[in-house]
Amino acid sequence: MTLLTGGHTLADESPSNAQSAQFNQYHEKAAYLLNFTRYVEWPAKSFKETNSPIVVSILGQDRFGEDLRTLLSDKIVQGRKLVVRRISALEECKDSQILFISESEKKRTPRVLQLLKATPVLTVGETDKFLQAGGIINFRLKDGSLWLDINHTAAERVGLKISSKLLLIADRSKPDRAQGK
What does the pLDDT average to over 69-82? Predict the structure, then answer.
């Protein structure tokens, strides 16, 4: 399966279609989260058992609606079932393979990333300075399309291997650019 890249235009949306545009953005983010399960390799210690699922958790406001659950249901990736969870307690973050940190958690994000700094969890955000705080993948809008920035150094630090195919579609995947240097 090929990776999805940004492509729909949000810039020209009329106010009556603003909710639809928001929905489309999160539909696209859901597709990316599915693809991350295919293009990221977790160390064996990330899973309690050999048949444990890949857990995609959402911390904060869930703007995916049913898109993410529908997209991931009944999928098997790397021999593992995919499971979506909505979490609220920081302690639950460590039990995830992918943690999507909603914009609503902007104030708590540095604390969450500090908690996970040595844990093999793919942290995915949607706020400015997410990568500088130690996050691994950040979604952002650029010219009306959804783009990815990847902090490859942070991924390697926690033992995650990101496929070169995923790094190729990222707008900024070099550590120095991702860190804002």
Answer: 94
